[in-house]
Write a structure and sequence with these properties.
heterodimer; A: alpha/beta; Rossmann fold; 6-stranded parallel beta sheet; 24 helices; B: about 250 residues; alpha/beta; 4-stranded parallel beta sheet; globular
Chain lengths: ~475, ~250
């Protein structure tokens, strides 16, 4: 059971509405950071463009990937059972978790029954979604994140800011500071190979010490019961193959029917994510090695509910490549942490409200609806259209900020009436013309904070038309 | 062919010269243009904030003003997109369906419907950067977008290539959003302004003296950013350039 103080902390965290605009202003204030962040991710986007352009059948691959996912999601129960059967045949123990609490309980039960005190872990957004880190930490389990970016974030006490490159918002000088503070490197040395090697040397002994290893999954193949993990650092294989106990946490939407389907997804995944043809390592974990155990936890945590939402179930096609984050001009200029959620950027904006509508009600408005995300998505999720739809749900459920709600009500009334509209235009014109600059540019006027207000022309188009055309017609 | 001119609210109020250029251009091309006097807005500001109930009255008025014409033409990509794809706050009958199908942004009307072969009166001897608003680019599909590999095409560039003296320069990120985004510009002001600054600087570094666009709302935002940054750059709607504006 969850102790009372943990439950209280969690409920407090869950109730506070995320203020994306406020968080983004802090991100933007750090000049070097935002410039680096924007350019680094834009580089990834351009590499993705070059890689995709080299594959003539790119659009066909996207359509295939989308179709495979839609088929699988519409037969999800069958494929999940098939996966369970085949994994079980392979000697894997399969567990079913309804929500994050069940997931964490299953994990701690397995770890406790094996006397585990140290867990080496490769990257997994799912365990972040479950807030597994603090849960296990409070129960005496030491967790070592072995992915370089994840480790940086763990040592700095921050969640990942990007689903593929978790510490992309940090400069190498920031990493030097974090490592100096935590693993004893030279704070003045921000040489990247030095920092990476230092982390490597610091982490290696834990692979030998740890009694258990854990990974997430990129794909779970129903026909073979195998877990597929795509990495670039080799840390997942060490985490799985050195300890005697291996756990994989898998969201139920990660199922694909057959191995041959990997041929579609693997070609899309790394090209979309990093603009590289393939990840360095694609591991297929199928059965426990002799004398070891392999456990798979299949987690729902709201996914089957999302599957039932007519406008939003497509979001379950996501393969977590991060291409929509890299291309998003808002994400690049606000940073992943500004979303205050496990999943940030465009895909986060359409997933997060399913976890907590009130808390994440500002996120669908952290978008210009420019549509770039939809067109880079390798599984063709209509991301920006879902963002548009979420806004309707948020308005319907009365979760708009009062000032916006009132403004829209007023605008709707004025714009529905030619007379009120003309009066309002006249007043606005007069206002801008005659108000002192200090009032037009006061701090409450967000437009004028960093932009000049358009000059008033003195006459509207309609007035001009009446004067110059009306009589002729 | 009876064509109705829809002048969006912000153009009516702040940029009448864009409305005038659009009207004059269509008249020069021999179009029978009508301007319904009771028009206001298409409903987009409310709809884009999820407020369907608040959008309904405006959409109803829009239909009242514009139903019955062969075409509705507007110098705004995002408004044309709203009418075509998102005008759904009111009951959808045959009249509404026809109106939505018949609504065009100016560039596509000139390019696809009128197929204008030349603009003999147009001359614009400046270096210009072209800004295609996101709705015109990715919703109305007026040009190749960088996200999709396909043969290059651009309806606005096709039209501008018929303007004498014009020199188009290309910024590093030609189709990144400029950060206007309607009420996004106010409710997400920090990111919006930053995007606008980056856009203006990108065009300046490419050597643009003017930014030309079919979306005046993007230009209003970029102009506000440029003025605050102290960047000496001018902004002009594509209707004005095609109608023969010299500067």
């Amino acid at each position: 059971m969850e102790p009372a103080h943990e439950a209280l902390e969690r409920s407090l965290r869950m109730s506070k509405r995320v203020d994306h605009a406020e968080a983004s202003s802090r991100f933007i204030a750090a000049k070097d950071h935002i410039e680096f962040h924007d350019q680094r991710l834009w580089d990834l986007r351009q590499k993705r463009d070059r890689e995709s352009e080299e594959i003539p059948e790119w659009q066909e691959l996207r359509s295939l990937a989308s179709a495979i996912k839609e088929h699988t999601l519409t037969h999800l129960a069958d494929y999940l059972e098939q996966f369970e059967q085949n994994a079980t045949k392979n000697g894997v123990r399969v567990h079913w978790a309804k929500d994050a609490a069940e997931h964490n309980q299953i994990v701690i039960d397995i770890l406790s029954s094996h006397g585990v005190r140290t867990l080496v872990k490769s990257k997994s957004m799912l365990t972040d979604e479950c807030e597994m880190g603090p849960f296990l930490g409070n129960r005496g389990i030491e967790i070592i994140e072995t992915d370089l970016g994840e480790r940086i974030q763990q040592l700095d006490g921050e969640p990942p800011s990007h689903i593929v490159v978790p510490a992309v918002h940090k400069l190498r000088t920031d990493v030097a500071q974090v490592f100096a503070r935590t693993i004893g490197t030279d704070p003045k040395n921000s040489d990247v190979p030095y920092l990476a090697e230092s982390q490597r040397r610091h982490t290696r002994p834990y692979y030998l010490k740890a009694e258990a290893g854990m990974t997430g999954a990129n794909f779970a193949v129903a026909e073979t019961g195998s877990v597929v993990v795509c990495t670039n650092e080799g840390n997942a294989d060490l985490s799985v193959n050195l300890p005697k106990l291996y756990l994989a946490s898998i969201g139920i939407e990660k199922i694909i029917p057959r191995v041959e389907h990997l041929g579609v997804f693997v070609r899309l995944l790394s090209r979309s994510a990093l603009g590289s043809p393939i990840t360095q390592i694609t591991s297929h974990f199928r059965a426990p090695r002799d004398g070891t155990e392999m456990h798979v936890v299949l987690l729902d945590n709201g996914r089957s509910e999302r599957l039932g939402m007519a406008d939003f179930w497509y979001s379950l096609k996501c393969i977590r490549c991060g291409a929509c984050l890299n291309t998003c001009p808002v994400y690049r200029r606000s940073g992943g942490l500004s979303y205050g959620a496990t999943y940030s950027g465009p895909i986060g904006v359409i997933i997060d409200p399913t976890f907590n509508l009130r808390k994440y009600s500002s996120l669908p408005f952290a978008s210009t609806l420019n549509g770039s995300c939809t067109h880079v998505c390798p599984v063709k999720i209509n991301i920006h259209e879902q963002i548009f739809k979420w806004r309707q749900i948020i308005a319907e459920r009365n979760q708009l900020p009062m000032v916006k709600k009132e403004a829209m009500k007023m605008a709707g009334k004025v714009l529905a009436s030619p007379m009120l509209y003309r009066a309002a235009v006249k007043a606005a014109n007069a206002g801008l013309e005659y108000l002192p600059r200090s009032m037009v540019y006061n701090p409450l006027n967000a437009w004028g904070r960093q932009r000049e207000v358009p000059k008033t022309p003195g006459t509207t188009f309609r007035e001009w038309y009446l004067k110059n055309r009306r009589n002729k017609k | 062919m009876r064509v109705a001119l829809f002048i969006p609210c912000y153009i009516d109020a702040f940029f009448p010269e864009v409305g005038i250029a659009t009207l004059e251009l269509l008249e020069r091309l021999g179009v029978d243009v009508h301007y319904p006097l009771d028009q206001t807005c298409c409903g987009q500001p409310m709809a884009n904030n999820g407020c369907q109930d608040d959008a309904a009255g405006t959409e109803k008025l829009f239909v009242k003003n514009f139903a019955g014409f062969d075409h509705i033409v507007t110098p705004s990509g995002s408004c044309a997109h709203h009418v075509r794809e998102h005008l759904t706050a009111i009951p959808q009958d045959a009249k509404v369906a026809k109106l939505r199908r018949s609504t065009y942004e100016l560039v596509e009307f000139l390019h696809d419907v009128l197929k204008v072969p030349e603009f003999p009166w147009a001359k614009f001897s400046h270096k210009v950067g072209l800004h295609i608003g996101c709705a015109s680019l990715r919703e109305l599909r007026q040009a190749k977008m960088s996200e999709i590999s396909e043969p290059p095409f651009s309806k606005p560039l096709d039209l501008l290539s018929k303007v004498k003296g014009i020199q188009v320069v290309t910024p590093k990120r030609p189709d990144e959003c400029c950060g206007f985004g309607g009420t996004f510009s106010v409710f997400e002001e920090p990111v919006s302004a930053r995007m606008g600054y980056d856009k203006v600087n990108d065009h300046r570094n490419a050597g643009a003296q003017y930014i030309v666009s079919q979306d005046m709302s993007c230009l209003m935002h970029q102009k506000g950013c440029a003025e605050r940054l102290g960047v000496d750059m001018k902004f002009i709607h594509i209707a004005q350039v095609l109608n023969g504006a010299r500067a």
